[in-house]
């Protein structure tokens, strides 16, 4: 056994090590792209199916093995459809050359002003129990959703955001999409989550917030019209009952360069419990 291992190691050259490292890095990035999304549960199911396939062949269960083989053929055809949101997100990032990059950050003063403006607006809306849905674009482009609303392209301010969501105004119904420090559009339509395990008390706004974060890497702020509760959705998860300080802590890594990828990773892990 040791001789065989030594023989294998002796055949590995520098290019092989580079090849292995690149493949490992790509798999690592892909893993964190689908982690905490619906695709992760589907991937686990696929792994179970593969293990059952190998086990049935090893145990000589010919009928079960034949059925699993046919099932695997159907699954391979269905995979592009099932993983459509994740595949689309990956291709978009490849097209922009940002698969391994981070979105552009604001300088410290601009980031502080933006975070303060968003949190002030959200607090004002919550205190007056005015429903709101604010989508913050990250690496995945949201142009498809921006086109469903009214394009604005205006500078973010607390007064501007509050005014948009005032009841019975033309733009109050739907979501606002922010790109950096600009309001790109209002009255946008978002996909609703299909997760049936959610609390029945959650309304359309919360389901839309979770739905868009299942398909993109956006962060969404939700203000409940019934209770005034502030919630944040990301990676298909919803954190509720946030105060101003907690909201700002979630916003800060999105816009300030000093919060690196590792810090954002730990924040994500903490928000997922």
Short description:
The chain contains eleven helices and seven strands.
Offer a few descriptive terms.
disordered C terminus; transmembrane; seven-stranded mixed sheet; 273 residues; YojJ-like (1
* Tally of individual helices: 11
What's the mean pLDDT score? 81
Per DSSP E runs of 2 or more residues, the count of β-strands stands at 7
The CATH class of the largest domain is identified as Alpha Beta
CATH domain topology of the largest domain: YojJ-like (1
Strand content: 5-15%
Strands in their spatial order, largest beta sheet: 2-4-3-1-5-6-7
The secondary structure category is alpha+beta
The N- to C-terminal Cα distance equals 43 Å
Q: Estimate percent helicity.
A: 55-70%
- Helices and strands, in order, run as HHHHHHEHEHEEHEEEHH
Largest sheet: 7 strands, mixed
Enzyme class: transferase
Organism: bioreactor metagenome
Protein name: Cyclic di-AMP synthase CdaA
GO biological process, one term: cAMP biosynthetic process
């Amino acid at each position: 056994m040791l001789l065989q291992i030594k023989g294998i190691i002796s055949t590995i050259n520098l290019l092989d090590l580079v090849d292995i490292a690149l493949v490992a890095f790509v798999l690592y990035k892909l893993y964190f792209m689908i982690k905490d999304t619906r695709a992760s549960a589907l991937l686990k199911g696929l792994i179970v199916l593969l293990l059952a396939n190998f086990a049935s062949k090893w145990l000589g269960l010919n009928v079960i093995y034949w059925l699993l083989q046919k099932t695997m053929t159907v699954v391979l055809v269905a995979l592009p459809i099932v993983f459509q949101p994740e595949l689309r997100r990956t291709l978009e990032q490849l097209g922009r050359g940002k698969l391994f990059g981070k979105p552009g950050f604001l300088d410290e003063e601009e980031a502080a002003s933006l975070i303060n403006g968003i949190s002030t607006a959200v607090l004002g809306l919550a205190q007056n129990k005015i429903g709101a849905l604010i989508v913050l674009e990250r690496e995945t482009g949201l142009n498809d959703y921006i086109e469903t609303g009214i394009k604005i392209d205006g500078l973010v301010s607390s007064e501007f955001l509050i005014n948009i969501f005032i009841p019975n105004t033309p733009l109050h119904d739907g979501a606002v999409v922010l790109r950096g420090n600009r309001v790109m559009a209002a009255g946008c339509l978002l996909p609703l989550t299909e997760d049936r395990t959610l609390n029945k008390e959650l309304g359309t706004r919360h389901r839309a917030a979770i739905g868009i974060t299942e398909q993109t890497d956006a962060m969404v702020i939700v203000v409940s019209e019934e209770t005034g509760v502030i919630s944040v959705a990301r990676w298909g998860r919803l954190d509720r009952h946030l105060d101003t300080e907690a909201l700002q802590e979630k916003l800060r890594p999105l816009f300030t360069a000093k919060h690196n990828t590792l810090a954002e990773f730990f924040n994500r892990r903490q928000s997922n419990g």
